[in-house]
Write a structure and sequence with these properties.
230 residues, alpha/beta, nine-stranded mixed β-sheet
Length: 230
């Protein structure tokens, strides 16, 4: 693979991004990276309320009383909710090369890197987060229910060793919207958000924690290509 640039850029949307547009933009960016004509990219965005089905999604896990749009995402995993107040980060990275603690061409190492990145960022936000064997995503003890609950989801796709899709961190979404699915096929546990711990939590503060933690795991600084949103 020809590397057009070793730089990793990030951009943040100022408005909600339609899911169809996100898929198109990710595919175009991945192709550019594969052809050596584009930069590796982290894309911070939010979507209107919707549900996406991963390659392992089961029809019975979709309830959808709100009749939100549904999409086949093409990533791994099962059903996931996306909506306002949830920080989506799509990562288009060349995984044929090492990134900090991430070994090249090692999907397990990449997934663990994403988990550790989220855990590190959440620690900066005073949340003790963790992973659990056999459960996808990042978890914590909910501040209200005192039960283990999911605070972030991970769903990725790798095309010719370029990653796309990524992570979804619940900052201040409408948590009742998660009741329209069985999140990631896991029935025994609920979901939570940063707002449950800190009602004044903002997307800006969350982004700052994610950006600070990035270099600790992935070993590079990021260059923003547009101004911050809110």
């Amino acid at each position: 693979m020809i590397h057009f640039s070793d730089e990793i850029i990030f951009k943040r949307d100022k408005e909600l991004c339609p899911y169809e547009k996100a898929l198109e933009k990710m595919q175009a960016t991945v192709l550019d990276i594969q052809q050596g004509t584009g930069c590796q990219t982290l894309w911070f965005t939010e979507h209107p309320p919707l549900y996406t089905a991963g390659t392992s999604a089961r029809p019975d896990d979709l309830i959808n009383p709100q009749n939100y749009p549904t999409y086949k995402a093409g990533r791994g995993g099962q059903w996931t909710y996306h909506g306002p107040g949830q920080r989506i980060v799509y990562l288009m990275l060349d995984l044929s090369r090492p990134h900090g603690l991430i070994a090249p061409r090692d999907i397990r190492s990449y997934v663990q890197g994403l988990e550790n990145w989220l855990i590190s960022a959440l620690n900066l936000l005073n949340i003790d987060a963790f992973t659990r064997e056999g459960r996808v995503g990042v978890w914590c003890i909910d501040s209200l229910t005192r039960q283990e609950s999911k605070i972030a989801a991970i769903g990725i796709r790798i095309s010719r060793w370029v990653s796309w899709h990524g992570i979804a961190l619940n900052v201040m979404p409408e948590l009742t919207d998660f009741e329209g699915i069985i999140p990631c096929g896991i029935r025994e546990y609920g979901v939570t958000s940063l707002a449950r711990f800190d009602p004044a939590c903002s997307m800006t503060k969350t982004d700052s924690a994610l950006l600070t933690s990035w270099s600790r795991i992935f070993g590079t600084e990021l260059s923003e290509v547009n101004g911050p949103e809110r």
